[in-house]
Automatic annotation (TrEMBL):
GO CC entries: plasma membrane
Protein name: histidine kinase
HAMP domain location: 181-232
Ranges annotated as spanning the membrane: 20-38, 161-180
Species lineage: Bacteria, Pseudomonadati, Pseudomonadota, Alphaproteobacteria, Rhodobacterales
Length: 438
């Protein structure tokens, strides 16, 4: 039997589930105690109290029935009823057709059943409220109504016990929840630090809490430190590669500029191509850790890139949806990613639409073009490094090394987001959605 449907009603957060684990057993325990003990107590005590009053009622009705005439019956009532705290009326005005009680008066069911078992000639029982009880019994002089105090046959509600149960249940649950929340707080802090690290942000985190939580926290710090050392080593290596390769390329370009023949022109083209390849490799492998997060106007950032594309002759349209003035992000990396998307769209299409949307938690940039697009089966492959999809994208319209979309996907992942490729419903080409957490 599957219980997956229960997941919809279970809290998603750790603290919510901990509270449910604490509150549910306490509530169930109190309910079981109430039903199994208090309800049985009500029923047993009520039957005993009805049995005691039934002796008085039976004695009175038997004396009235044994009286030789109505006057003797009245005399018996006047002698017996006052000491027993009973108020008879003979004959009764009207006898109800059936027993009566309030629908929620469950102890009244026990009272009516017990009276019918112990009183001969009982016609009807009415329990209008918690103070009065009325019965009608058959006599030779007509039906007699007897009124008496309801509290003589009903067990009083044990309010004190119920209040104590609820009060101490709430107190103990609150104390347990506070203790549990203090135990869960280190896990929450570690999850927040991991989420920020996934967005490319380093926040201060100190392991605390239970032994297992501290072990997990120290493991997270060690992992984060290893990743930082690896990225720093990569940065140092690439800085050296950049310096060592750019210098000879510059000398080669300077030497070739002094030549005028066609062969030198071809060599200059090769040098420019090498420079382009080197820049692409460095853009892909560059560490963005030094690009600190800051409050940036996303409209100004994306709008500036669109204006730059228009100045080069591109047909680029900017559409603003939900936006807010500032968003915390890493501007250099985001600018590089959006610039690559716009550049790719202009390379393979003639018309480009850029849609910007910034919510409280997410920045989304959608770039659409009217180019040939990318087949659905090869979209995942298109985001891999050094992948060139010749059948899908016209490579004659610009040189590339297959790193444009890979750089965008890497920037999105480092900011806790994703790059999603699809078809543009309006322009008919590629639809690239770049979304990051802010």
């Amino acid at each position: 039997m599957s219980f997956r449907w229960l997941k919809r009603y279970v809290p998603q957060g750790l603290q919510g589930r901990a509270a449910l684990i604490l509150v549910l057993p306490v509530t169930l325990l109190q309910l079981i105690v109430f039903v199994a003990f208090i309800q049985r107590h009500f029923e047993d005590v009520t039957r005993q109290m009805v049995r005691s009053v039934a002796y008085d009622l039976r004695f009175l009705t038997e004396e009235v029935r044994d009286a030789p005439n109505l006057t003797a019956a009245y005399r018996a009532i006047s002698y017996i009823a006052p000491p027993l705290n009973l108020e008879p009326r003979l004959p009764a005005d009207a006898t109800p057709a059936e027993d009566q009680r309030r629908w929620y008066d469950f102890s009244g069911i026990v009272i009516i059943d017990s009276l019918n078992e112990r009183l001969v000639g009982l016609e009807a029982v009415t329990l209008p409220d918690d103070r009065d009880a009325n019965i009608w019994v058959e006599t030779p002089w007509g039906d007699m109504m007897i009124e008496f105090d309801r509290r003589r046959i009903s067990a009083s509600n044990p309010h004190q016990l119920i209040v104590i149960m609820i009060f101490f249940g709430v107190i103990l649950t609150a104390v347990a929840y506070i203790y549990m929340r203090n135990q869960l707080r280190p896990i929450t802090r570690m999850a927040a630090a991991a989420a920020e690290f996934g967005k490319g942000r380093i926040v201060r985190y100190q392991p605390s809490g239970a032994r297992e939580v501290r072990q997990a926290g120290r493991a997270f710090l060690e992992m984060r430190n290893r990743i930082e050392r690896q990225t720093q080593s990569r940065t140092m290596m690439l800085s050296g590669v950049s310096h060592d390769l750019r210098t000879p390329l510059t000398r080669m370009r300077l030497a070739l500029s002094m030549l005028d023949d066609d062969e030198a022109a071809l060599l200059r083209k090769d040098v420019d191509e090498m420079q382009h390849l080197l820049d692409a490799f460095l853009d892909f492998a560059r560490n963005d850790a030094e690009d600190d997060t800051e409050e940036v106007d996303p409209v100004a950032l994306v709008g500036g890139l669109v204006e730059d594309a228009r100045r080069t002759g591109g047909d680029v349209e900017l559409v603003r949806e939900e936006t807010r003035p500032l968003a915390r992000l890493r501007p250099v990396a985001v600018r590089r990613a959006v610039s690559n998307l716009i550049g790719n769209a202009l390379r393979y299409g003639s018309r480009v639409r850029v849609t910007l949307s910034v919510s409280e938690r997410m920045l989304r940039v959608v770039v659409e073009d009217d180019g040939p697009g990318i087949p659905e089966a090869r979209r995942e492959e298109a985001t891999r490094p050094f992948t060139r999809l010749d059948p899908a994208r016209n490579q004659d319209r610009g040189s590339g090394v297959g790193l444009g979309l890979a750089i965008v996907a890497d920037v999105a992942r480092s900011h806790g987001g994703a790059l999603r490729l699809g078809d543009s419903a309006e322009l008919g080409g590629l639809r690239a959605e770049f979304s990051i957490a802010v």
